[in-house]
# Entry
Amino acid sequence: MGGAPRTPPPAIAGPDTARARPESVAETAELLRGTSGTVVPVGAGTKTGWAAPPTSCDLLLRTGGLCRITEYLPGDLVVVAEAGVPLAALQECLADHGQMLALDPPEPDATLGGIVSANASGPRRLRYGTVRDLLIGVTVVLADGTVARAGGKVVKNVAGYDLGKLYTGAHGSLGVVVSTTWRLHPRQPARATVTVPVHDSAQAGRYAALLARSTLTPTAAELKWDAAAPGGELVVLFESTAASVRAQARDTVALLGAGRVADALPGWFGHRPEGDLVLRLAYEPFALPRVLDVLGALDGRPSGAPGPHGTFSACTGVAYAAVPAGTGLAELRAALTPYDGSAVVLAAAGPARGAAEHWGPTGDAFPLMTRVKDRFDPERRLSPGRLLGGL
Amino acid sequence: MSDTRIDLLAGRLRDRIGAAHVLTDPAQVRTYACDGLATVRVQPAVVVLAAGRDDVVAAVRLCAQAGVPFVARGSGTGLSGGAVPVADGVLVVLSRLRRVLSVDPDNARVEVEPGVVNLWVTREAAPHGQAYAPDPSSQQVCSIGGNVAENAGGAHCLKYGFTVNHVTGAEVVLPDGEVVHLGGTAPEHPGYDLLGAFVGSEGTLGVATRVTLRTVQAPETVRTLLLGYRTVEGAAGTVSDIIAAGIVPAAVEMMDALAIEAAEAAVRCGYPEGAAAVLVVELDGPAAEVAEQFEQVVRLATARAAFETRVARDAAERDLIWKGRKSAFAAVGRISPAYYVQDGVIPRTRLPEILTEIGRLADAAGIRVANVFHAGDGNLHPLILFDDTVPGAEAAAEDLGSAILDLCVDAGGSITGEHGVGVEKKAKMARQFTADDLDTMHRLRCAFDPAGLANPGKLFPTPRLCGERPGVRTADDPGRDPALGEVF
# Structure
């Protein structure tokens, strides 16, 4: 995607930070038991900008040594893999059996632990959901070195609290994710795409609504949007049997009254935009055109700099947008409020932003989140300050 | 607990909620002594028939002030005793909170109060071509609040997921009476996913007073197939073959000979005679995909020597096929004076060997077991038959149930796939999880409910107190006598 150059993820560690790279769960537990300082876990470091910078980091804990695929049961569509396993390596192993983990965040080298901790997902969230829909078991090491498991190795399981949900998106602030267990899906044999140009926000909204209310089952529907134009293109992806993707692509063209059928994905598909200030937006799915209008009305763009642009997962209410560096986040968040919206910073050039600016306002559940943090990490040693409200 | 303390609380509840909806008369209260797990009965001291959120807040707050435990109850269909009252406590009945608050097909959301019945949500969504996917067999009576508490599943969760995958937001009354909003109508709210942890917490973290559900588009095509087999292995093998072929059916259900016999006796569903097992396979989605996969399933079944392949030609035939399956639990009452429903999960690939082992254990105990299960996800529902007039028969049935759960855990499975832990299986939690695992879960419990007043005595194997931990900030926690924790 065009635009400003990629902002490198900020460094977590300072000059006095110690580093460790444990090679087993037991070693990780030993490490945490043996320290009383602050600890920040990182995987491949591809999404360190997704949370606010830690207020302290005595020990940078790299999970790359936890790199085993522990158990793979193709007949049960379940895999257990340690946190440091790169998603790409796991997918390669699963592909041998015609299977996949149905998560497609674009960050190259991203590890499973990092994906869980940052709650990263990609375009196929439309069909398969996100981490919370696919993670069926998890092992963490708590700040005091306790090794704790939740969930299990079977998809259907309601025994005990589903703590995997709690650790998802927690950026390592409740425990260090060391092992993950996933529900898998079969790879689909065929693919077709329908690409439609989109000229204004109302048209984008109309297309998304038509798709959402149809019986079509796209794997993804991604809108590439440039607010300055305004305009972009919508790519609807089908992955199924050959006959089904052909028929669905044809039906999509009929439904939208436009579209070009192909089998390749455009180069921008699934990539997050780049720029000085990159945000993850979430909102009620049907508010897509309103959100596009909100972006279009943003000012503060220096002349010659690119305008707001991004990729919008139509029908899901999730988008990634690059906005001008001077964008007032408070105003943007207020504009999204009618749609239950949020805007979280993923990348920002310039001085580090504190938790408040990074995450936005806390809701009425924040005192409860604080109590959860205090029970899991009473001394506030894990990823301090990275989460919402400085947790 | 002293009687005067309860009397005092009952008086305050009457003042606040109205005398007509606060029951203490033993004859009236008795109705609420058990849920779907009828073997465990506990009479609550007070029953509150809440009419709305404010009643729930008032009841919970008054309980918190008095240090009296409370249990929330929906339709009372739970099978693990999750809504069994506490003897000296308050039962908060949510059945009167049954308003559908909004139907928003554009955003695929329906907001309801917790007493709304599961099937009503689909009824509301249907005119818009949508449905609510989780479909427990009790869907005609079970409530959304109970579904949220238990993370209810159903036959179609193989493809569509469980309650937790279809709840986007909830208004929750915490055990101290504070009201919080978890999630919402949009996805990916910043902060911890407390909603995800709340769903399935069996009433131990608070009471949901509003729930926002995600609906799904009804599929273009649904095809339902009944397959009859001479051997259980043939049926189980077909399930594995379907999965190995890369097909994710909407549902794959299995029943063995005894379950078929019961269903026939009860609802005359016309399942193939002489079958050792039947499979109900349902495929849904776009027409071309379903047609292709349907042919494939028939081929795979034939290769495993299915002797009958019956395709539902219309909605009526489809309903009849499902009727046999969905009424199987109750139907067992036709062939046995009493029975005990178990709920365990195994890795799907181990079905044949585990079924053989269940048969061996049953024979050794001299007990008949009818097997009904969600074969696609390895979720077994052995129905253990016994005669409750025979002394010791019930205990023997429970022992067999316990042995079956041990098999599930040893096979890498779970002690519950959808019925929950409740009172029934709390001792088994220690079989599936380590003390550290359980302690960690308990940390969440303490964050929500430091005084241990919400549905105490459930889910965790041993009573435990929260206590104070060094460094824990307690400014938000109302001061309480720790002795009032989960000792009830």
About this structure: Chain B has five domains: 3-93, 100-217, 220-335, 336-424, 427-484. The longest helix of chain B spans residues 393-410.
